[in-house]
User: Which sequence fits this backbone?
């Protein structure tokens, strides 16, 4: 009887070990798939005169709420966002991003509403201005110039309270994208010395983003990821080089203002 019990116990122990091993293998496979997926996005992403902006989604809840966010992104830039609740319904947000050969700044007033059950809805409308420069080895050639963005953005998210530590949600931005870009042998070779073609373009931009913040009541680590599509209204034969994917990482600070 004793031997039978020991054999059964050994069999159960081996089954448990096999289950743990199988779970470990699944976990390793899942991590590899996630890493390969991120690498795939980064490889196909490339660079562009514009890329998804890693703007903080603040989830303003009430008057005098202040959010200060700063970080870096996969498309090499440093960036910062400041958001503030002006009244019980109105908020304002400012954002800036700077890279080695690019910059972008925007300001957007907006409306916000606490929906209850720790959910917040925001609606912003604003103006952005930037500069981008992209080099193409194949020709070789480059494209560079300024652009303006007139946009609206809808945000929806859930914030943490008490012992909870996670904020999360999503946003979607859309608007009119106007660019004036100089084509210095980017699409094809024209000349070593110029003059070069200048494209005055009108386009529609769509930019969804997801985010999460993890940490304490005042300071949280933030990660967000976004996609960009630019659909040209004028001169559809020439595409605007855009980085379609970007991820941002940073610190989000909520000072005590009341």
Assistant:
């Amino acid at each position: 009887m004793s031997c039978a019990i020991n054999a059964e116990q050994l069999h159960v122990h081996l089954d448990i070990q096999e289950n743990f091993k199988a779970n470990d293998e699944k976990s390793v496979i899942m991590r590899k798939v996630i890493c390969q997926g991120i690498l795939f996005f980064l490889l196909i992403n490339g660079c562009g005169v514009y890329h998804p902006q890693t703007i903080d989604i603040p989830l303003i809840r009430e008057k005098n709420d202040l959010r200060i966010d700063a970080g870096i992104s996969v498309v090499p830039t440093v960036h910062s966002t400041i958001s503030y609740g002006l009244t019980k319904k109105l908020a304002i947000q400012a954002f800036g991003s700077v890279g080695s050969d690019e910059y972008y700044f925007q300001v957007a007033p907006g409306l916000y509403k606490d929906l209850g059950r720790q959910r917040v809805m925001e609606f912003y409308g604003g103006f952005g201005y930037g500069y981008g420069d992209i080099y193409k080895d194949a020709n070789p050639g480059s494209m560079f110039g300024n652009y303006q963005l007139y946009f609206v953005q809808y945000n929806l998210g859930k914030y943490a309270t008490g012992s909870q530590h996670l904020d999360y949600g999503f946003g979607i931005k859309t608007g009119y994208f106007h660019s004036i870009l100089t084509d210095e042998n980017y699409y094809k070779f024209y000349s070593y010395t110029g003059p070069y073609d200048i494209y005055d373009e009108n386009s529609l931009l769509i930019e969804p983003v997801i985010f999460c913040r993890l940490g304490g009541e005042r300071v949280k680590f933030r990660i967000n990821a976004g996609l960009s599509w630019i659909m040209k209204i004028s001169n559809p034969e020439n595409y605007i080089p855009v980085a379609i994917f970007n991820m941002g990482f940073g610190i989000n600070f909520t000072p005590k203002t009341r």
